[in-house]
Specification:
Elements lengths: L2 H45 L13 H6 L11 H13 L4 H15 L8 H5 L24 H15 L12 E4 L10 E7 L2 E6 L6
Antiparallel strand pairs: 1-3, 2-3
Helix pairs in contact: 3-4, 3-6, 4-6
Length: about 210
């Protein structure tokens, strides 16, 4: 084997090892982020959506972006479920609107009338028929198709789970598109309209 070929083989070996190291590092960051998200969602369940977690539980930007990098993972962890809900409900909207959708999910998580994990909140009602979030039961694939929009959704999910989002919707638990007028709207209190979405909270004494 000539010297030039030896250098090529050595270079390929180095690249392969570097790629494996990067993949392992990303997988480790993703696992840590998922574990923190699980602890944070349970803190919301017990303490409500207005949490102030310790620094040790704060999910980092590299950590959240390492989770589900291709947008095709099953909806089995808090980050993926929340990011996918943000993406599908508001991917064409402003960051403020996407943040408001995230807040609805977190508000539901912290309310006794809703399930106790992010994924259960997002998937409530099943994949067919009467679901809470229309994208979940529309019969289509739930994979994220726009890399940039999904990265934004994951960053918003990170801040939402960390308790770092501004309260733009005054505890709202529901929303709908501005163009429709659902019958249930009259039973709740409108809190805000952000972009194309209208947000509502419960009236006193009304069950979710």
């Amino acid at each position: 084997m000539c010297r030039s070929w030896k250098w090529i083989v050595a270079l390929v070996a180095v690249l392969l090892l570097s790629g494996q190291a990067l993949a392992a590092d990303r997988a480790q960051k993703a696992e840590i982020a998922k574990e923190k998200a699980e602890a944070l969602e349970q803190a919301v369940v017990t303490e409500g959506s207005d949490i102030n977690p310790p620094d040790s539980l704060i999910i980092t930007k590299p950590g959240v972006q390492a989770v589900d990098p291709t947008g095709t993972a099953p909806l089995e962890d808090a980050i993926t479920c929340l990011a996918r809900a943000i993406y599908w409900e508001a991917r064409g909207e402003s960051v403020a609107t996407m943040e408001a959708v995230a807040s609805v999910v977190i508000n539901r998580l912290g309310h006794e009338g809703f399930p106790e994990t992010v994924c259960e909140v997002v998937r409530q009602g099943g994949e067919q028929g009467s679901c809470q979030f229309s994208w979940w039961c529309d019969g289509r694939m739930d994979h994220a198709e726009n890399e940039q929009a999904y990265a934004t959704a994951k960053e918003i999910s990170r801040r939402a789970l960390n308790g770092q989002l501004p309260d733009r919707i005054d505890g709202a638990l529901y929303f709908h598109q501005r163009q429709i007028s659902p019958g249930w709207g009259r039973n709740f209190i409108k809190t805000n309209q952000i972009g194309d979405l209208v947000f509502y909270k419960l009236r006193e004494g009304v069950a979710p």
